[in-house]
Amino acid sequence: MKITDVRAIQPIGKDSPSDWRTTLGQILVAIDTDAGLTGYGVGGGGLSGIHVVKTVLRDLLIGRNPEKIPQLWNEMYQATLAFGRKGIAVMAISGVDLALWDLSGKSQKLPIVSLMGGNPGEKIPTYHTVWDFQDLSSVAEHAGFKLHLGKVAAPDQQEIMISAIEQARSLIGTGRLLMVDAWMKWNVDSTIAISKEIATFNIEWIEEPLSPDDLSGYETLKEESAVPIAGGEHEFTAAAFRPLIQQKLHSVLQPDVCWCGGLTELIKIYKMATAAELRVCPHRGAEIWALHAIAALDPNPLAETGRPWMTWVEGQPSIENGMIELSDQPGFGLTFDEHKLKLIH
Ligand SMILES: [Mg+2]
């Protein structure tokens, strides 16, 4: 089997937010082959990511055997090294990598979960992310909830945050998980102070309190935070996760498979984290791209709800009574009607 074309487009779903998540957001990568199979993956980077695919990655891939995924990944990483390593270039590689995996599953007539030694059909619990604690009352079937505090994260808003977390715990009761997400807007001192205030509310983790580059800050939090720290949503490649894991800077690692380099890198991160006895909980794990890895590799599976505006992905399993499960369809099990997709230009 040989690759005959690599295409990338940016479909826009209803209610896609008017910020970088749309302008530099999800791209669909399609890889065509001479076997008549097309593999699909979702990466990131918007039109900039598409430019990386079309000007660098496409030429590298045409005529190649798509089943040589580790070799192709290394060549794509090398070809983008001068301007890549993190961010948009790796987001683009992620979409290509996932499309290669999709092709691999389709050519073997197996779901991706089976390629990793797992089985479809397992029911996986989910947690739901909300931006306002008042939204919690309508989603009571989930195993847990994450309160996103990115809008009220200033130092003088600590009281508002702590009060919101307390009200969230009282709304969902004691039987469900509760997490909080600071979206890189706190600092070491405020994280320690807030953690001491909220530890009494039985918080599963504080997510991304600091910049991903502030490793020394995370080193301090490892010792002094009263609540476990999660992170990695905005980190790229398994190589960059290695120090996070070796130094145990995060208790919970949250790679985003559509950004971090694709499934090839997510598998490496799972292996490193498992060996270090750390938990992996992929960002947006209920989206199909990470769900296969969760089902196959995760001893403590928990899937975060996905982007509601990704409505153009047909075949994404829905959440029923707080649980989600994979079908036995080959590849990632998705279909795309490319003619129907609304594109950004
Ligand atoms: Mg987050």
From TrEMBL:
Note the coiled coil stretches, chain numbering.
Answer: none
What is this enzyme's EC?
Answer: 4.2.1.90
The Gene Ontology biological process annotation of the record reads: amino acid catabolic process; carbohydrate catabolic process
All copies of the Mandelate racemase/muconate lactonizing enzyme C-terminal domain together span 133-228
EC class, as a word, reads lyase
The cross-references to CDD domains, in alphabetical order and at most eight, read: MR_like
Query: Is Magnesium included in the keywords of this UniProt record?
Result: yes
- What Pfam families does the annotation carry? MR_MLE_C (PF13378), MR_MLE_N (PF02746)
Query: Which residue windows are transmembrane per the record?
Result: none
**Native species:** Gimesia aquarii
- Keywords, sorted A to Z: Lyase, Magnesium, Metal-binding
Instruction: Please state what the protein is called.
Output: L-rhamnonate dehydratase
The protein's required cofactors: Mg(2+)
GO terms (molecular function) for this protein are: L-rhamnonate dehydratase activity; magnesium ion binding
Which InterPro entries does this chain map to? Enolase-like_C_sf, Enolase-like_N, Enolase_C-like, Mandel_Rmase/mucon_lact_enz_CS, Mandelate_racemase_C, Mandelate_racemase_N_dom, RHMD-like
Key word Transcription present? no
